[in-house]
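Dear colleague,

As promised, here are the two records you asked about, laid out in our usual form so they can be pasted straight into your sheet.

NAME FIELD: protein one
SEQUENCE, THEN STRUCTURE:
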Amino acid sequence: MYKHWKKIALAIAAFFWNGCSDNSSSSDVKYACSLKVGVCPEYGVDFYYCENPEDYQSPDMNKKCTFTPRDPCSNYYECEDGATCTTYDNETIMRCIDAQGNQITQEEFEKNYYEENRY
C-alpha cells in the first residue's frame, strides 16, 4: 500500500509542477497605453513670412514668401511597462520608446501594446 501512496504523491507533485511552468509567450501580453496629455502650440496658425512687407498684399504672395506651417498638436501616452509614445495631429502611428530609451517600431507597438479607451 505504501508503494501506491508514493506514486500518487509523485503524480500530484508532477501535476502541480507542470501547472507552474512558464510556457506562455510574452507576445500574449499586451500593455495598455493611456493618454496623459495633449498639447497644441499657443499660436497654432499656418502663416507666410515675407521679407518685403509689400509682398503680403501681392497676388503672388505664395511665390514670393515662405510658407510656415504651424507646429503640430501632440498627444503623449504612458504605457504600463514604462514605454512612452507620442502621436501628432490625429495620426494613427505611435512613435514610442521603451523604458530603456530604445525605439519601438510600429509593428512592435501593434503586437505588444494597445491604446487604452479614454471613456
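NAME FIELD: protein two
SEQUENCE, THEN STRUCTURE:
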Amino acid sequence: MINQMNLITKSLLSLFLLCFVVSGYTDASNYVVGDVFESKKRTSSVVLYELKNDLLTDIRRDPSKTGVFRQRDSRYTYDLQKGDKIILLKSFEKGKLFRVALVPKRESQRDNNTYYYVVPAKFNQLVFVEHLTE
C-alpha cells in the first residue's frame, strides 16, 4: 500500500514538473519579421519608442539602482491601447528589439508617426493575429 502511494506521488510530481518545463519553453517564442500582434487588453505594459536611442538607454539602465528617478518623455513614447496592432518590420541586436509599424484602432491627436521601436519581452500580453509575407 505504501509502495503504491509512493509510485502515485512520484508520477504526479513528475507530471507536474513536465508541465512546468513545457510551459517554460512555450513562453520563449521566436518572433519573426512580418508577424502581426494585437493588444486585447485595455492597458498594456508594451511601450513603443519613437527614438531607438531612448529604447537602448532604457534597456541598458541598471535596474538594481534604487532611488533613481527617470522620467520618460511622453512625446516620444506610445502606450498600446486595446485594439491597436503592431507589425514587426525589422529585427535589431539578434531579436532583442524590433522596429514596428503601428496600426492604431483610433486616430490620435498626435503626429501621425507609424514607426516605433519595441522590446519583445512584453509581447506575452499581445495576441498573435497573422503573419504577413510581404
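A couple of things worth noting about protein two: The radius of gyration is 20 Å. Residues 24-28 have pLDDT under 50 and may be disordered.

Best,
R.
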